[in-house]
Amino acid sequence: MSTGTNKKKGFTLIISVMIVSVILALIAVASVQHIVLFRKSGTAYEDEFRAKMLAEGCVEQGLLKFKQDAAYRGNETLTLNGDPCTIRPILGSGPFTLETEATVNARASRFQIKIADTETYQITQWKPVSSF
């Protein structure tokens, strides 16, 4: 073999190694971006879930207080498991409207509950809402 042929083979080998290295680097960068995005969406889902559970816990507390005292009118902030939630002022004189909201890391959850009267405390509506 001549020296010229060895140089061409060496050059071809170096180019091939560089191309494979670039492809592997691109795969690594894409994988890291995917992992970061997946982690962020998982955290957002967890915050949204925690906000929903917190707002529903606030509903339960508001219903309990309203049932124990028909004069209870909400308008307070409670702390459940270290996180705050708000029971908005109870509206109406029968049917009544109880609204709650909680926010965890900028993820908000709100609920609106309709209570028929103070005799039966029948809940006629329990739904999540985007705003009040």
Structure summary:
The chain has 132 residues and is α+β, with helices and mostly antiparallel strands.
Structure description:
By secondary structure, this protein is of the alpha+beta class. The protein has one domain (3-129): Pantoate--beta-alanine Ligase, Chain: A,domain 2 (2-Layer Sandwich), CATH 3.30.1300. 50% of the residues lie in helices and 27% in strands. It contains one helix and five strands. A five-stranded antiparallel β-sheet has the order 1-2-3-4-5, with helices on one face. The longest helix has 66 residues, at 3-68. The N and C termini lie far apart (84 Å). The model has no long low-confidence stretch (mean pLDDT 87).
Shape: rod-shaped
Question: What's the SSE pattern?
Answer: HEEEEE
Based on the coordinates given, report the CATH architecture. Answer: 2-Layer Sandwich
Tell me the span between the first and last alpha carbons. 84 Å
**Gyration radius over CA:** 30 Å
User: Class in CATH?
Assistant: Alpha Beta
Characterize the main sheet: 5 strands, antiparallel
Low-confidence stretches: none
Give the number of helices: 1
Quickly give the structural class.
alpha+beta
**β-sheet strand percentage:** 25-35%
Number of individual domains: 1
CATH topology: Pantoate--beta-alanine Ligase, Chain: A,domain 2
Give the strand order, joined by hyphens, for the main sheet: 1-2-3-4-5
What are the salient characteristics of this protein?
132 residues; Pantoate--beta-alanine Ligase, Chain: A,domain 2
Explain the layout of strands and helices.
Blueprint: H1 3-68, E1 76-80, E2 83-87, E3 96-104, E4 107-115, E5 123-129
Antiparallel strand pairs: 1-2, 2-3, 3-4, 4-5
